[in-house]
Amino acid sequence: MYIGVFAMRYGSKPDGHDLSMTHLEYEEAQRLELPSLIYILDEKRQPILPQYVETGPGAEQLRRLKEFLCKRHTVSFFTTPDDLASRVLRDFPPVLQSIGAEMTGHLPEEPVADVNGVLRKFKLLPKRVAGTEIDIEFKAPDEWYPVDPETCVALRIAAGESIQCRITFDETSRRVYASGEVAEELIGVPEGEMIAVRARLAYGTGTHTEWNGNDGYFSEAVQYHGLVITHLKAPS
User: Fold this and answer.
1) Can you tell me the distance from the alpha carbon of 102 to that of 89, in angstroms, rounded to the nearest whole number?
2) Are the beta carbons of 59 and 95 closer than 8 angstroms?
3) One digit per residue, pLDDT tens: the chain, 236 residues?
4) Cα–Cα distance, 154 to 223 (Å, whole number)
5) Pairing relation of β-strands 145-146 and 162-169?
6) Number of domains the chain contains
């Protein structure tokens, strides 16, 4: 399998290549159709020293690569090294099992999160807990709907291949989103069937523009937040 970690440097380019070694490794993994986990540094939540930030042509190549990764994969955004380690440790066992790998030994279990408490805080202070991942179960809706481009940009999900619906969890109506292969799996689940998922609390801001008759267009700042499903799990 392939684990890709992308921060603020595009990387060095081997002689005779226009792409960096990191980029070439990613493309080779996709050519081989390896199961892939993609992790990108959360630039909005993790400060980084200027000396570790690429500038010039490499910075533009890195930006385009990250945009492509977000469209192609369900990306996990990390902050600190410990945060990255915990995400990889949590994500890779299900992938290995899905390709038939036999696993021995014992992986440390994460403490049980106070899901209801986290969701209550998310309702009031969404930016404070954005990025937190939780496990929830809900009934498949009667219909999923496409996600508008403004919401996709704010929540960093792929436009044109993302879906959404409203669910009732903890007696509260909440909006959930999914992209790519996860979205394809979800739209095939029959209405009313229980779905178990891992979801990331997502928050972002943007500008919403509307036509206001004789006054022309007007724009206003908008906050977006919801649960972005990262992968499906077996119902309990």
Assistant:
1) 16
2) no
3) 899 999 999 999 999 999 999 999 999 999 999 999 999 999 888 888 888 899 999 999 999 999 999 988 889 898 888 788 878 877 887 787 777 777 665 454 454 468 888 888 888 998 888 878 888 899 999 999 999 988 988 887 888 889 999 998 767 788 999 988 889 999 999 999 999 988 888 888 877 777 776 777 767 788 899 999 988 886 66
4) 8
5) antiparallel
6) 2
CB 158 within 8 A of CB 179: yes
> Read out DSSP for 106-162?
-PPPPPPP-HHHHHHHHHH-HHHHTT-EEEEEEEPPS--EE--HHHHHHHT--TTSE
Distance CA 191, CA 202 (A): 25
CB-based contact 182:121 (threshold 8 Å) = no
Identify the three-state secondary structure at position 74.
coil
The Cα 69–Cα 40 span in angstroms is 9
Separation between Cα atoms, residue 170 and residue 109, nearest integer Å: 24
pTM over cut 0.70: no
Domain of residue 17 covers 2-98
Contact criterion met (CB below 8 Å) for 186 and 163: yes
Same domain, 143 and 213: yes
66's CB contacts (< 8 A; 6+ apart) are 6, 40
CATH number (domain holding residue 134): 2.40.50.140
